[in-house]
Amino acid sequence: MRFRPLVGILALLVSLVAVVQLEGARAGLQISDHSVGTTPVTLYQRAPEGPIVVVAHGFAGSRQIMQSYSLALAQAGYRVLAFDFEGHGRNTQPMSGDVTSIDGTTALLVAETRRMIGYARSLPGDTRIGLLGHSMATDIIIRASIDEQAAGQPVQAVVAISMFSGAVTADAPQRLLVISGAWESFLRKAGLDAARLVDPAAVEGAMVQSGPVRRATFVAPGVEHVGVLFSPSAVQAAQDWFDMAFDHESRTKRSPRGWWILALLGGIVLGFYPIAAKLPAAAPEPAIPTGRFVLAVLIPVAITPLLIAPFYRNFMPVLVADYLMLHLALFGALQLAILWRWPRWPGASAALSALVLAVWGIAVFGLALDRYGANFWPTPQRLPIIAALCLGCVPCMVADSYLTQAGRAALWRRVVVRLALFAALIIAAVLRPDDLTFVLIVLPVFVLFFLVHGLMGRWVGQRAGALAAGLGLGLCLAWALGVSFPLFAPE
């Protein structure tokens, strides 16, 4: 169609403008990568002076996802030390210990955080320390600050984003700001409870004080658990809290960095549309009779978790990756069998189309995400895990493509197919809550995957056929899952 070149030009312009804006947030900063033992760290600074803020990410996060805070604080005159927890991001050391025990994994992560604090204090210049963390890291940094206080070397301020921690007391941490998204009702209550330990009449948005203890809560409007990491008002609140604690004056403006990230990623997705139109054409997929469609949806949901969950044993060094591989493989195989779509070797055209989708979804989209939003590049230890995940992701996505007629099926069918996959994963978590609860955390990854890569896969499927789309999406999904979940080696 004639407008496809215009779509490509628009996508390129949007992407270029977004890159200019995102790179502008780094202008004037010295950004350097280091290692503290096995822990990779990034130091952001305008100059080698000013207080240091140690930044920690949440579960399945990385240094990159905390950049809105890291860059803003560095531009404001702080030195910022962001790091990847064990098992996360580029950290090659797996998490270990009992994840359900304070003396297990939590203690190990607290010790790692305190090593980062010690490294920050060893840097030349101002040795005053602030801590900032999100979600899982809030409990870690609060416990680390309490341990530092007990050791006679207190941190000056703590900012806990989306906080949940049983370690907060009426006396510690002494200077604590809790930031929550407006849509995080449970975590908003946890933040308010922390403030009310100091003053029972505390309300959101106001600071309370008792002697040296200062507490405040801030609610970022219109965001949830991930959006709060990109909220300009939340970033500003954190900066203001550190300014007060360090008697520091910042002269920087709010930056809508999150919107520019969305613009860049959206431009990359949109830019794939005219590329997909140039792929070799294939015949449209035939409609699937309603009866067979219903069987292909319901039978795998009922059978897959019952056959795998009760007998599952961890055998891969990544949380629940091994279960996902087995679950997706059986789920997809059952669907293909019911549809009577037996696996076959793709022809050259289908293989080429699948490769184009995989390269765009992993290299182009993924590298942009890795630089500006979240870790998407694997350490060497993760490559075999990605390869193993392909054994489950590829058949599952090929079956998905056939069931949705490569994106041509009615909307209700496409929605039902994806909801069925989610339902089977939820059933597995219910059957084995002690071992498979972490499966529930993968659901947002699937949602984002279907919204982004699924759209690109639909364009490929409508042009090059279901097999091409399914193969490409399977490779992309295996990569996304393989880089997202923490490496874990229980002791």
TrEMBL record:
It comes from the Bacteria. Keywords: Hydrolase, Membrane, Transmembrane, Transmembrane helix. This is Alpha/beta fold hydrolase. The chain crosses the membrane at residues 259-281, 293-312, 324-342, 349-369, 381-403, 415-431, 437-455, 467-489. Pfam families: Abhydrolase_1. GO terms for molecular function: hydrolase activity. InterPro entries: AB_hydrolase_1 (IPR000073), AB_hydrolase_fold (IPR029058). Residues 51-163 form the AB hydrolase-1 domain.
